[in-house]
Amino acid sequence: MITIENHLGKINISKKYLEYLLGTTATKCFGVVGMAKRSTAQGLFNSIFRSEKINKGIRVKYIKNAFIVDLHIIASYGMNITAIVKSISHKVKYTLEEVTGLMVSRINVFVDGIKV
């Protein structure tokens, strides 16, 4: 849960909601096949319970009044990786700033695999 205080009061934003929002946004970008696991423990959990969650490769942190986002993606074979990463970065930043009204300081995109 991310809690933000302003002159109007407190705002609570669920991390699960942000992860779902960003996962949906990232997977809709051209050249993205899906999200990759963020860690070995997460991959083990997903394989045991057969869960394919949209938010499995996302980490959102709120530090010093700005978001830091880590995205682990699987790209499509034959696509320009630089163009895919720029597209995802711009789209995710725009979406997060529009929905929350807060700044995004950094978006890290990790290409963890390529699929045909």
Written as H for each helix and E for each strand, in order along the chain, the element string is: EEHEHEEHE
What is the CATH domain class? Alpha Beta
Q: How many helix segments?
A: 3
**Termini separation:** 37 Å
What CATH calls the topology is: Alpha-Beta Plaits
Overall tally of structural domains = 1
Strand content: 35-45%
Low-confidence stretches: 42-51
Strand tally, please? 6
User: So, the CATH homologous superfamily?
Assistant: Cation efflux protein, cytoplasmic domain
Explain this structure.
The protein is an alpha+beta fold. It has a single domain (13-115), classed as Cation efflux protein, cytoplasmic domain (Alpha-Beta Plaits), CATH 3.30.70. Helix content is 37%, strand content 38%. The chain contains three helices and six strands, in the order ββαβαββαβ. The chain has helices spanning 15-27, 40-49, 81-100; strands at residues 2-6, 9-13, 32-35, 58-63, 66-76, 103-115. The strands form two sheets. Strands 3, 4, 5 and 6 form a four-stranded mixed β-sheet that branches. It has a two-stranded antiparallel ribbon with strand order 1-2. The chain starts with a strand and ends with a strand. Residues 42-51 have low confidence and may be disordered.
